[in-house]
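Quick one, tokens below. Sequence please?
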């Protein structure tokens, strides 16, 4: 603290010392002086798919951001996406007898198929903000064209809504951002609900 004060012009030193005495803590004073808040340590957990060279498969791992502790969640699975309430994880299953889009409780138990017409190409799930619907990408029609589908969170038939991949819902829940191409222009596009219309995202 004194080093920082010593580097100031003489007129500013007295003001800085007065602010230091009045500050709740040294960190608060330094944050105000430098204008750069001290980063808040990361909290919570992140889920990710990890490929094991020794096992030759993907598994889903939970990592505590504060401690670095890792917990094994699901075997032969990747592309995890937690529901907004954190109680359910949607994922792509690589199990030979259960390929496709599945969901499980947050501890990796009570697994269930999400789409009645399951397909091994279904993946990259994204939850709607209210947790009632998932969007996902698939090459299920076999024509090499990726499409975006929606399916109820409790499971059911998939509905095709647009050509594209890598879907993500807007916070309001009525718009889905996707990677797609329209009229020769490719990039991030927006589609509304199940309407099927796709438009470039404006700046």
């Amino acid at each position: 603290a004194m080093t920082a004060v010593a580097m100031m012009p003489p007129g500013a030193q007295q003001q800085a010392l007065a602010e230091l005495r009045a500050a709740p803590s040294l960190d608060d004073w330094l944050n105000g002086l430098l204008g750069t808040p001290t980063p808040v340590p990361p909290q919570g957990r992140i889920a990710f798919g990890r490929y094991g060279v020794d096992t030759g498969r993907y598994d889903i791992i939970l990592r505590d951001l504060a401690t670095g502790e890792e917990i094994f969640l699901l075997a032969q699975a990747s592309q995890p996406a937690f529901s907004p309430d954190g109680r359910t994880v949607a994922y792509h299953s690589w199990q030979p007898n259960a390929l496709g889009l599945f969901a499980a409780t947050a501890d990796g138990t009570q697994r269930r198929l999400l789409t009645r017409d399951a397909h091994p190409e279904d993946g990259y799930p994204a939850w709607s903000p209210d947790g009632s619907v998932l969007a996902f990408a698939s090459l299920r029609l076999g024509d090499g064209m990726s499409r975006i589908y929606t399916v109820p969170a409790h499971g059911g038939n998939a509905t095709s809504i647009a050509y594209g991949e890598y879907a993500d819902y807007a916070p309001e829940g009525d718009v889905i951002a996707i990677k797609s191409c329209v009229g020769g222009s490719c990039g991030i596009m927006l589609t509304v609900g199940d309407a099927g219309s796709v438009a470039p995202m404006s700046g």
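The chain has a mean pLDDT of 84. The first strand starts at residue 45 and ends at 52.
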